[in-house]
Amino acid sequence: MTRPECAWDVEAIHAIPAVPVILSIVKHITGMRFAAIARVTESHWVACAVDDSINFGLKPGAERVLESTICHEIRQHHTPPLS
User: Fold this and answer.
1) What is the model's pTM?
2) Which of 21, 42, 47, 58 lies in the 20 to 30 Å Cα band around 67?
3) Spatial CB neighbours of 80, under 8 Å, sequence gap ≥ 6
4) Residue 42 belongs to some domain of the structure
């Protein structure tokens, strides 16, 4: 179930035709089998778009525990994931 305050973001990302291609390219370049665009706030991580080749099971609108995400790590340390 999509959080009401994130529904617009999920719909807006879904309406961009290039998003599936971008996620596929990200997977290819990184060698990962999962890529997502998420709305991240101080307390929530909500998937807006997902390309999931590992059957992780995350769908657009789904929420993850923020503390379990790399986004949380990055926000805590204020350093880019790649340097």
Assistant:
1) 0.80
2) 21
3) 74
4) yes
